[in-house]
Specification:
The protein is an alpha+beta fold. It contains nine helices and 17 strands. It starts with a helix and ends with a helix. Its cofactor is Fe cation.
């Protein structure tokens, strides 16, 4: 990166105005995208999958993050590890992106063979002085947070993931992620910068006019509103939601389900937020009729109406945990104008499709919502490329969490740029 480019990025970071959207280059500049991949996705904990993605010994999954490719594999000792997907011989890419079942990690170029724990087991024709112990796969830091898998490409990953893991353990334990399986995965390419994807997720200002399916189970008022802007019906709905929230939290906490908000989106390197939110009508699940989509409950839960536990992490994930299924999302940058949104629906590992759940009913709310969000991100990206673009103010009522995302992002850049 040129010194002039560094200065321009520093100037953009320095003059960012709190409470306002980011300036256009943060969404359109290839130079800033390279900084993002270095500073944000190269040095922070990135959500990449779940324990059920690699449930058995020999199950492997490859995830690409910018120029880096990472193998996540469960070893014969049942431990999950991560390695750079680069052969230690001449650097060939070893496994393609996606999932596989393997006995060893074998490079297709010259057949260098690595065990599931990363050690080099076989390298033909290397001579008597060759030491295989010096040529194992390069490890990548990996941490399972109650079954959610995070990796960090840095040799010095943020230590505060331990605090997040400890705080989230009692919230996630009732959903027993390790005893679920992935019922369906959807990969959607959004025509927008990754920050637009995340900002769109961090508010529900847009929900009422754009998400008719999602606003059946979820309350748009749960993410803020301007009291003076509500009509009489709106005030009744807001009051109903507030009362439901208080009653639900009291009941869930009494049942041993931690539910109240924990919010550290902007004050630490590994930013996160969680809260259990009511679901409307039956209160059971994020479905079109608000009732459970799967007959087999997660973790032995007996109360179907436990709402939805929301869990957000900086910089790239959000999740919804219900009594019958889990929906998990990750945003992976492709380039400055495109982002992969990967969604996974998980059910109890013993649930049988067509018997215990209908796949369309399980996925239809978020399949529709993802498509709608992709359209919104696309018009946001189009606007950011327009010469008339000017960063506007966030709503103090409905976009406070967008501001926290932007503040976290700017703070992380400011701390890393020389």
């Amino acid at each position: 990166m040129s010194e002039q480019s560094r200065i321009s990025v520093k100037e953009l970071v320095a003059r960012r105005k709190a409470g306002y959207a980011l300036e256009a280059p943060f969404y359109t500049s290839a130079e800033i995208f390279r900084v993002d991949m270095d500073v944000i996705f190269g040095r922070h904990w990135i959500f990449v999958g779940l324990d059920p993605d690699v449930p058995e010994a020999g199950d492997a999954m490859v995830v690409n993050i910018g120029p880096s490719s990472v193998i996540i594999v469960r070893g014969d000792d049942e431990e999950v590890r991560a390695f750079h997907n680069v052969c230690r011989h001449r650097g060939a890419r070893i496994l393609p992106e996606g999932k596989a079942i393997i006995g060893n990690v074998v490079c297709p170029y010259h057949s260098w063979t690595y065990g599931l724990e990363g050690g080099l087991k076989f390298a033909e024709h290397m001579g008597p002085g060759f030491d295989p112990t010096c040529h194992g796969l390069k490890p990548v830091a990996l941490r399972s947070v109650s079954g959610l898998l995070f990796i960090c490409l840095s040799d010095d990953p943020p230590a505060d993931i331990d605090e997040m893991a400890a705080a989230m353990a009692p919230y996630l334990a009732p959903h027993d992620i390790r005893n679920t399986r992935v019922a369906f995965q959807s990969d959607l390419i959004e025509d927008g910068n990754w920050k637009l994807t995340m900002e769109n997720n961090r508010e529900c200002y847009h929900c009422a006019p754009n998400h008719p399916e999602l606003t059946i189970p979820l309350f748009a008022y749960g993410f803020g509103f301007a009291p003076d802007a509500l009509d009489e019906e709106g005030r009744r709905e807001a009051d109903r939601y507030a009362k439901l929230m208080r009653a639900a939290h009291a009941r869930w906490e009494a049942e041993g389900l931690p539910s109240r908000e924990i919010e550290h989106l902007a004050d630490r390197a590994t930013g996160f937020r969680t809260e259990r939110l009511p679901i409307d009508q039956s209160g059971e699940s994020q479905t079109m009729d608000t009732r459970a989509a799967c007959r087999v409950a997660l973790g032995g839960l007996t109360d179907k109406a436990i709402g939805g536990l929301s869990f957000w992490t900086q910089p790239n994930s959000w999740h919804h945990f219900m009594g019958d299924h889990i929906v998990s999302f990750s945003a992976i940058p492709i380039d400055e104008g495109h982002t992969l949104v990967r969604t996974k629906w998980l059910v109890h590992k013993d649930a049988v499709e067509g018997v215990d759940y209908d796949l369309q009913r399980l996925t239809e709310v978020w399949e529709a919502t993802n498509r709608q969000d992709a359209d919104l991100v696309a018009i946001g990206q189009q606007g950011a490329t327009d010469p008339a673009y000017e960063a506007g103010p966030y709503s103090p009522y409905t976009e406070g969490l967008v501001e926290k995302f932007a503040a976290w992002y700017i703070d992380r850049l400011a701390a890393s740029l020389p």
